[in-house]
Here is the input.
Amino acid sequence: MTERETARLVISKTSEEQQARAREVAIAVARALDGAKCEHIVVLDVRELSQVTSYIVIGSGTSDRQIRTAAISAEEAAEEMGEATFRSNRNEASTWVVADFIDVVAHIFEPNARAHYDLEMLWDGGPEVEWRDPKAPRGARAMHSPE
Here is the structure.
């Protein structure tokens, strides 16, 4: 194997490991939103659609307080996995909070704002990622960290 082929293999393997890690973080963030009692949580794999992130997590909260709390929970879940929050916009009385972890971006909306911006339609080509713990009883809240 040439030096160039070896370098390409190392980059590819690192990229695969990084993508697997990003998926784990996305699942942990989704489960954190679930634990904060967000509704209609979706994880989208946008690797083939976006040049700036790999996964988008979307959830709905019913009040500005719940939305901020959910964002904090998402940040803590990512931090527990060794991922720092790059940026977050936890403002008072916000109907849309974004927490950016580089490879994962979480959007927590008030339901009317979510319907208005309709990120699911914007990222329509991105397949949904199953984030719920398959071992958890139906209707139970998910655990915070993926297996």
About this structure: The longest strand covers residues 39-45. Confidence is low (pLDDT under 50) at residues 9-13, 143-147. The CA atoms of residues 64 and 92 lie 7 Å apart. The radius of gyration is 16 Å.
